[in-house]
Design brief:
One of its GO terms (molecular function) is peptide deformylase activity. The protein is of the alpha+beta class. It is built from two helices and eight strands, in the order αβββββββαβ. Bound molecules: zinc ion (ZN).
């Protein structure tokens, strides 16, 4: 197990388009494992590769539900429906939280660490986390979409992604 350092804003790697993954090897599997360890250690519900300094289309989401850890490699949002507005934070912006408008439902086509294609349908908080992580892979940060920032005492507990 290896915990990587989380890149904090501002950093060039957080705002660039990430490269697609074409090689599904042991190195990729180890990277995904490190990302998981790093996310858990940081108490997050998701982590994208650029957040540990790697500009590749790799992210994970784990909101502690029956889906377990969702591996997002070269993910594409195929469908969006509805909308939700809710609080969001990011491990690359410690202590910063704001309301962000997201689709209520998304259908995502992704690959796992072995290259296997998976279709994920999600709504609510899981859909929010997926959209946040997929944005990271295109250099889009949640701060570009915040409708309103929270004051420090407004949120008792929050989860970064
Ligand atoms: Zn984030």
């Amino acid at each position: 197990m290896a915990i990587r350092e989380i890149v904090q804003y501002p950093a060039e790697v957080l705002e660039q388009e990430c490269e697609r993954v074409t090689v599904f090897d042991k190195k990729l599997a180890n990277l995904v494992k490190d990302m998981y360890d790093t996310m858990v250690a940081a108490d997050g519900v998701g982590l994208a590769a650029p957040q540990i300094g790697i500009a590749k289309q790799i992210a994970i989401v784990d909101i502690d539900d029956e889906n377990g850890t969702i591996e997002l490699i070269n993910p594409v949002i195929m469908e969006r429906k509805g909308e939700q507005v809710g609080p969001e934070g990011c491990l690359s912006f410690p202590g910063l939280f704001g309301d962000v408008k997201r689709a209520e439902y998304v259908k995502v086509r992704t690959q796992n660490r072995r290259g296997k294609i998976r279709i994920i349908e999600a709504k609510g908080f899981l859909a929010r986390a997926l959209q946040h992580e997929i944005d990271h892979l295109h250099g889009v940060l949640f701060t570009s979409q915040v409708l309103r920032y929270y004051e420090e005492d407004e949120l008792e507990q929050s989860e970064g992604v």
